[in-house]
Amino acid sequence: MKRVAVDLHFLPCIEFFVAILDADEILISPQEYYQRQSYLNRAKIRLANKVETLSVPIQGRRPRLPLNKVLIDYRQNWQKIHLRGIQSAYGKAPFFEFYFPYLQPVLEKTHTSLWSLNQEMLTICLKLLQFKGKVTVCENLSEEQVDLDIRGQIMPSRPFTERNYYQAFPYTQLFGLDFEPNLSIIDLLFCMGPEAKKVLLSSIKKL
């Protein structure tokens, strides 16, 4: 049984799901600390003429806090911005009408913490991908026996080519002639639907 420890990203990138694809159990912890400039509160989508970053604003400038203590800043109108951005980017995608109703209520909901939002998003994404493994919440990941620990590895500032999980496998995207790799998983879901898992399998880096 393969156990993988992960950071709880917001709408994780494709590399994240490729890395956990063969996991029987995914381990997450609300006690993991928030990291600045990470995917914990941001995700990348493709608009008509650029790649856009969706960012969830948090309270406080540099909170050295566990994820379940990091509060989302609802004074900013980020929910409508995210929903509008996703609709603009993927409203004409083949599977938008099928998958968007799963995501919309989560983005419209007021979550108590970044942990709560990210956990609900991960649960939905795994469901839409028909992921067979289970997610386990642990108090202390450092005390768990794991087969793979990818915490702190998948970061916006470090290209995926530096790691041994993901290689870009082009699929049909809505905009542009050049394929844009490693966007949020919603890009793959909206564009490829039930074929998304096959794309993930084809994206495993061959060593």
TrEMBL record:
Database matches in Pfam families: WbqC
Matching InterPro entries: WbqC
Superkingdom of this protein's organism: Bacteria
The protein, known as: WbqC-like protein
